[in-house]
Amino acid sequence: MSNNNKFALSIIDFLQVSAANEHLAKNKQECLEVAAQCLADAFDLDKKDAPSGAGAKLKTAFEEFQAREAALTEAKKKEAEELKVKGNEAVANHEYETAIDYYTQALNIIPTSPVFLSNRASAYSHLGQHEKAIEDAEKAAQIEPTHVRAYSRLGYAKYSLGRLEEAIEAYKKGLSLDPNNAVLQKSLSLAEKKLEAKEESSSSAASTTTQDRAAPSGLPNLGGLGSGGMPDLASLMNNPAVMNMAQNMMQSGALNGLLNNPNIANMARNFQNGQMPNLQDLMNNPQLQQMARSFMGGMGGNSENSNNNSGNH
What we know:
mainly alpha; Serine Threonine Protein Phosphatase 5, Tetratricopeptide repeat; 3 domains; 16 helices; elongated
């Protein structure tokens, strides 16, 4: 007879002995008898072949196995705890790689320990390995959502990577579990201040970029110039304000003085020959700057006031 059949007969004996218990309800006795018969049919056995006492021996063997497993588990737990203590000592001595090795050994024994995971996350962050720290901290939080240190480690790693919004979220989660945690309170405050400074810096940079697009020395913004940096002459000629300013210039004699300027005359000859003028030279020409101010004055504009207002928020 095979070992499987012997094992099955031992179980059949256990079921039959259990069914004979007079303190058991009638319907449960019947269920056990049916189970014994089904098992015998499945293995092509006769219930009568089940050796008496085999079921009791099977139960005793199982209880002894459980006892050994419990003793082994306690020993393993003690070993894992000792490894954790060594890891903590290594952290205190700034030996973070050694600490990681100890925590990893402890996790090999108890893979679901949120304490070991969050401790290793801290060691990873000390080495600048923040992505690994995030992985451990998130796993610790998933295993035990109320483990406050997991959120502290998670927040620090994300803060170190510049992921400030996520760091703040992690710190707030930790504080929701432990509102009086001074470390989390300070960490949250630092993260919020850094995020605020970052947003202010971005806003200031955007404002500066907008101002830099304006032409220097009060010249009008040339952002709307056409292809090649030249204006759309047809649009300019059809603009009443431009035509009015041109008439004012001719009447004031400013245009005559401008045309007598050798640089302007040379620029005009180049333009007639198909060469584009250098806009930077034009904007740095004192006479053109004066003409631009006249233009702006004719339109009631004030470039300095415009620049000042752009800085207000």
